[in-house]
Design a protein that fits this description.
344 residues, alpha+beta, five-stranded mixed beta sheet, three-stranded antiparallel beta sheet, 17% strand, globular
Amino acid sequence: MRCLIAQAEVLAFIERCMLAVGSKPSHAKSLAEVLVEGDRRGHYSHGLNRMDVYVKDVQTGICAKEGEPVVEKETVATALVNGSNLLGPVVGNFCMDLAIKKALNVGIGWVVAHGSNHYGIAGYYSMQALRENMIRTLGTNPISVAAPAQDGDSFVLDMATSAVALGKIELYDRRGDIIPEGWGCDAQGKLSTDPGKVLDGGGLVPIGGGEVTGGYKGFGLGMMVEVFCGMLAGSQYSRYIRTWKGTDRVADLGQCFVAINPANFAPGFNSRLSDMLSLHRTLEPAKPDMEVFTPGDPERIHISRCEELGGIPYHINVVKFMNDCAKKIRVEPLLPCDRLISDS
């Protein structure tokens, strides 16, 4: 069963928790907005489910509470930003805003950051570019590309370079469910359907799985993102990145934000993209009872469902876990469920 909770209540709850451990109000709000947008779009692995990680980072002092991102090096089209070890969404918003300003001026803005932390769903920052009728690309390990079509339509790709994001493994573990084969492996590198083994010394499997099914392509994409984030930013990369959820040292994550202004290229970009989306959506499906989706369509459907329900449906175990976390820092829990709905 799932628990339906009003979006405003979840936003306020996350803000209360971050303020309780010392985050600045503006930083707490930035984080809350990113996490709730992840849940609203159906990416529960990167929403409320992750709040305890951010609370722990700030509470232990491994993530900075004070300060703002700083531009260290800059040209009309590029910038290197020091994230000052702040919450990832604070750094992400700063860098995306800067990239968009540069793209409005010269057609492209390429901004990389070091000294950052986990910043939620990459698509959140891509969609900021849509509001300025721009294309946004790249990210961290995930790759996100958003491009504007006509009449509010858009192409929004937001994907990990692994078979799934680690947060999905965490969700299955929290719910007590097994994971599909091909998502992760145990500490010996063998495929496992036990989320606990994946989280305890195991790891994620790249897109494609094994070599025979194209896993080397996912491996290559992951390394490509490292080049744009870790190498350009001068941040941690590969084996030097600290263990997920670790608080033994600062994360020093590298992130890349690119905004492109279609107006600087061939005219009619929006209409051509609308046509391409239409061509793909109207393809004959492999299964008659299934629709053909383009990137961003499943998320739009989930948003519409949330609007119809009047809230966001959360798995009860996630709500209980987060309320337990809130209790430890003396924060009022999420309000009781508006109502229970089936877990489907």
